[in-house]
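Sequence in, structure out.
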Amino acid sequence: MFVTTGELTPCRWSGQLEAVTEMAASAERVLVVDDEPDIVALVAYHLAKSGYSVSTATSGPEGLAAARRERPSLIILDLMLPGLSGLEVMEELREDPATARIAVLMLTARREESDRIKGLTLGADDYLTKPFSPQELVLRVGAILRRLKAGQGDPSDIKQVGPLKIDSTAHRVTVDGREVDLTPTEFKLLLLLAERKGRVQARNLLLEIVWDAAPDIQTRTVDMHVQRLRAKLGEAGDLIETVRGFGYRIKNVADRS
């Protein structure tokens, strides 16, 4: 089943949604921000049915306030919202240390590559275009949250690469003692490169492991995340090398000038 505007009525799902959400009260929280009531109702229903605790908002300011108040594990964020656009909301989230690490799945009716790239550049962890399958959305939410959990690691597992220190237990990255705020996907990507330092990682392999994605989709996603990761790491970003036509690797300390 694919979601299209006008296909559903909120009343149809309200009773079922309330019952399922009540059962999921102690589960991981997902915030759905969209101004189309039928889409909000259906998405929330499928998420709650899959075991998530769901809250909703129908405008940019309302979604931003809910994110700051509830600190959900993940936000499903529509790009075209009243008050503040989804891109503006995402920018605010990433600039606030309290919400910078909340995972974001972007929803958009726009199919232009430039819109998707802009969202990924601002810090989205994944995106889905409308119309979409609710089942696919639930699977993508699960994949993002698994990446977040995978970044927590073992208590003694601290990776050091030159000035770069990665504490997988605290989900903390520092460069020369300065903490760097990363999204869950950025953290997982950096940790994977650090664990395999000196070895080239193909874009398709990174997509498969970090994004839980089939190896034939959107390799540009990797490039945009690496670009943003380098910018956040400052001078330490030079540790991430591009191997033209293949992928990326993080230098061995001995290779760093």
